[in-house]
Amino acid sequence: MGAIPDISGLSVRDLLRLEARILFELRSRDLVRTNNKPIGDIAEQVVFLARGGVLEPNSTKSHDITTEAGQRIQVKAMASRAAGDSARFSPFRSTDFHTAVFLVFNEDFEIVEAVEVEAKQIEDNIRLIPHTNGRQPSLRQMRTMGWDVTAEMQTAYARIE
């Protein structure tokens, strides 16, 4: 068995890139079937750093962050995918929040897009899919509903290191 390299000195982005390569290799060996990644947790940290307040426990229904002003924010993230504009974010099973912040990371795990959308926009524009009991917006839909917060989220992301 080979020695495991020390990764403690790697940046967050380098750790994410390494994790992506490991998942790719495991998939190529038919050992894993999904692309589940820690990108969702990283995205929550980014929005939390940008907005402050409280990062809610994982079991909290409908939102991830509560700002000091009481605004409830749901966070959705997506790593770059071959599906392009039709790629879908994980579903919303409730819209009991004020806004959702969508983060899109490229293959180098840099934030390339961030959009904030009001819950009402999601309710009004994204159809409920019965078999998932949720609303699952595409990248294209996300781009048409909200306002750009990319610079704000990139600045917060830089603070993670």
Briefly say what this structure is.
This is DUF6998 domain-containing protein. The chain is an alpha+beta fold.
What does it look like?
This protein is of the alpha+beta class and 161 residues long. 33% of the residues lie in helices and 20% in strands. It is built from 5 helices and 8 strands; from the N terminus they run ααβββββαββαβα. A hairpin with a 5-residue loop joins strand 2 (65-66) and strand 3 (72-79). Helix 2 (39-51) packs across helix 5. The model has no long low-confidence stretch (mean pLDDT 90). Residues 39-152 form the DUF6998 domain.
Unreliable segments of 5+ consecutive residues = none
Q: Secondary-structure element order, as H and E?
A: HHEEEEEHEEHEH
How many structural domains in the coordinates? 1
The proportion of residues in beta strands is: 15-25%
Instruction: Supply the CATH architecture.
Output: 3-Layer(aba) Sandwich
Rg over CA atoms: 17 Å
Mean pLDDT: 90
Number of helices: 5
- What's the count of strands? 8
CATH class: Alpha Beta
* Sheet with most strands: strand arrangement: 1-2-3-4-5-8
Q: What is the rounded distance between the termini?
A: 32 Å
